[in-house]
Design goal:
Residues 1-24 form the signal peptide. The chain is of the alpha+beta class. The chain is built from 4 helices and 18 strands. It has helices at residues 3-24, 28-86, 217-220, 348-356; strands at residues 87-102, 112-129, 134-143, 150-154, 161-165, 171-184, 187-195, 228-238, 241-249, 278-287, 294-302, 320-331, 334-345, 372-383, 392-406, 418-430, 433-444, 452-464. The model is unreliable at 148-155 and 157-168 (pLDDT under 50).
Length: 465
């Protein structure tokens, strides 16, 4: 019991007792003493009541303050939870083992076998939803296990030479850094460092989205894979149609090479990107390649001469165009995907000559660029868990590339016309992990070069929070 209440009860009882005594007193002197004592007790009682009222007010104020603090903390927790719910994190990565027969340089016709391991990539994706309409996403890729300068041997350049490259041996690159405004499902705008929708690899680049151990070689032998540039684009979904249209920074023709056509012209190796020449990229799909069946077309066009560092070496346009046609059928246990790429490069001979005479590049006699290039792949798979309690998919794949489909003058060599045919298996112990094995044959369209064989193992993961 509260001591103050107890004291108050005792005081009230005392006052009542005194009142009783006063009533019982008969002589004036005793009555006066009783009344005086009673008045003193009443004064004390009033003081105690005032003290009790003040204490109760303090307790109420403390309770109110505590309640406000609890509400404040609760509101902060709610706000933190709300902010956290607007944050997203995703990651995927791959590690591979390969055993290939390869040719030491472009003149070699005797293959050697080499086994390699590679932590291909670890990718982290951060997203934040500012509001219903505004969001952002940043994707950072860690390639080949680290960063630093390394020495690389390139047997297909200048009869075989060693090149020091900062990005070889590992690199950390920003694959995407975009802000999006999407007021409706039918229309959105994104700008920053964005993915170009040219090539299926830009759409299906996570390890559970393609069947081969490594991403398709045919696309990498013709253009940048998971192609990203600085620019702005619009996109949206209307019924089952998905569209994209972008204006982005163009390529630099100084780094075009015979064996991968325009792929090396991607300006990611420089701190700043030359944007004197811009490019257009667009895509229209029916269906969704990421979730199932779809068909789609894509188109890229841009000049490449204005972005050269040695702009005085070339006085003609190097207009580049690429057309992509792709399709996918994913139904039940069946998986079938394919893509065809065709590209043209204006003034390919002039670019070849300019590159040969640019100090520091020295691509040598084998730097002839194709005025036309083509590539395709077809992969087909069957999921065995449709019939067995086994989360496994078997597949077959064909990749083809010819970066020298045609040249402006002379005859195009078939040394760079390659076909990779393979079969393999994907095993997924959980939906977030895939283990892959693949074996196949590599054929070069030159009769004097024998077919070679390759084998690869890989493991990949992907998850999102």
């Amino acid at each position: 019991m509260n001591p103050k209440l107890t004291l108050l009860s005792v005081s009230v009882a005392s006052v009542l007792s005194l009142m009783t005594q006063a009533q019982a007193a008969t002589d004036p002197e005793s009555l006066a003493k009783a009344i005086a004592k009673q008045e003193a007790e009443i004064v004390l009682l009033k003081q105690q009541l005032a003290s009790l009222a003040a204490e109760q007010q303090k307790q109420q104020q403390k309770s109110t303050a505590v309640a406000k603090q609890i509400d404040h903390v609760s509101n902060n927790i709610d706000k933190a939870d709300a902010r956290f719910s607007q944050f997203s994190f995703k990651s995927y990565g791959t590690a591979v083992y390969t055993s290939d027969e390869y040719f030491d340089n472009v003149q070699d016709t005797s293959a050697e076998r080499r086994s390699r391991t590679d932590l291909e990539r670890i990718v982290t994706e951060f997203g934040y939803q500012f509001s219903d309409d505004w969001s952002m996403e940043v994707e950072i890729e860690y390639e080949h296990g680290g960063t630093g300068s390394a020495l690389e041997y390139d047997g297909f350049d200048e009869f075989g030479e060693f090149e020091s490259e900062v990005e070889a041996g590992g690199e950390v690159v920003v694959e995407k850094a975009e802000i999006r405004y999407r007021p409706s499902k039918a229309f959105g705008v994104k700008f920053g460092n964005i993915h170009l929708p040219i090539g299926l690899t830009s759409i299906l680049h996570k390890p559970n989205q393609y069947l081969t151990v490594q991403r398709h070689k045919s696309e990498a032998a013709m253009m940048p894979t998971v192609w990203n540039e600085n620019g702005i684009g619009v996109y949206g979904e209307i019924s089952d149609f998905h569209y994209q249209a972008q204006v982005v920074s163009g390529l630099n023709s100084e780094y075009f090479r015979t064996y991968d056509w325009v792929a090396s012209g991607h300006q990611k190796r420089f701190e700043e990107v030359n944007t004197d020449d811009l490019a257009f990229a667009g895509r229209l799909d029916y269906g969704n390649f990421k979730t199932g069946s779809a068909i789609g077309v894509a188109y890229y066009f841009g000049n490449t001469s204005g972005n050269r560092h040695k702009s005085n070496k070339l006085d003609v346009d190097g207009a580049l165009s690429i057309v992509s046609v792709a399709g996918a059928f994913v139904e039940g246990p069946w998986i079938l995907r394919g893509q065809y790429l065709y590209g043209t490069l204006d003034n390919a001979d002039a670019i070849t000559l300019a590159n040969k005479t640019t100090p520091g590049l020295q691509p040598g006699n084998f730097a002839q660029l194709g005025s036309e290039s083509q590539s395709f792949f077809v992969e087909a798979g069957v999921k065995l868990d449709e019939w067995f309690d086994l989360p496994m998919t078997v597949f077959a794949n064909v990749d083809y590339s010819n970066p020298l489909m045609a040249v402006e003058t002379g005859t195009a060599t078939k040394r760079y016309e390659n076909t990779w045919s393979s079969v393999g298996v994907n095993y997924s112990p959980t939906p977030e992990i895939v283990i892959k094995a693949e074996g196949g044959v590599h054929q070069v369209a030159v009769s004097s070069i024998p077919d070679t064989h390759f084998f690869a193992l890989g493991v990949g993961y992907q998850f999102s929070l």
